[in-house]
Design a protein that fits this description.
It holds the Pfam family Ribosomal_L19. This is Ribosomal protein L19. Keywords: Chloroplast, Plastid, Ribonucleoprotein, Ribosomal protein. The chain has 1 helix and 6 strands, in the order αββββββ. A 6-stranded antiparallel beta sheet has the order 4-3-2-1-5-6, with no helix packed on it. The chain has one helix spanning about 1-15; strands at about 30-35, 40-55, 60-70, 70-80, 85-95, 115.
Length: about 120
């Protein structure tokens, strides 16, 4: 109990990033990640589909699924990470479930969801 109260006090003092667009499960998004190559700093972009979203104050995260050279890869992205520079919604889709884990077992042709026009 004491630990939970302590964590809540710390979270209340911290400011979290809220400048990103509201992302929903099923959306196809573009994420910019800060990368350091020695002395160089740059932003690398990648596209992915959101298959799950977990909302807590300090540890809000997205589970993303992307296709890299024909191989399906999942990534966990913490929204309050200092490495995340921007998130942009490319296409919005309608998903009936809050977690679309069934998306993993489908072929490329069957992974289409109903698109919402933005």
């Amino acid at each position: 109990m004491a630990n939970k109260k302590f964590v809540k006090k710390i979270e209340a003092k911290l400011s979290f990033k809220n400048d990103f667009e509201e992302v929903h499960v099923g959306d196809f998004i573009k994420i910019g990640m800060k990368i350091e190559d020695g002395a160089k700093k740059r932003i690398q972009f990648f596209n992915a589909t959101v298959i799950a979203k977990k909302n807590t104050n300090s540890q809000s995260c997205l589970i993303l699924r992307q296709l890299i050279q024909g191989i399906r890869v999942e990534r966990i992205l913490f929204l309050n990470s200092p490495l995340v520079s921007q998130i942009k919604i490319l296409r919005a889709f309608k998903a009936r479930q809050s977690k679309i884990y069934f998306y993993r077992n489908r072929s490329k042709k069957n992974t289409r969801l109903k698109q919402i026009i933005i």
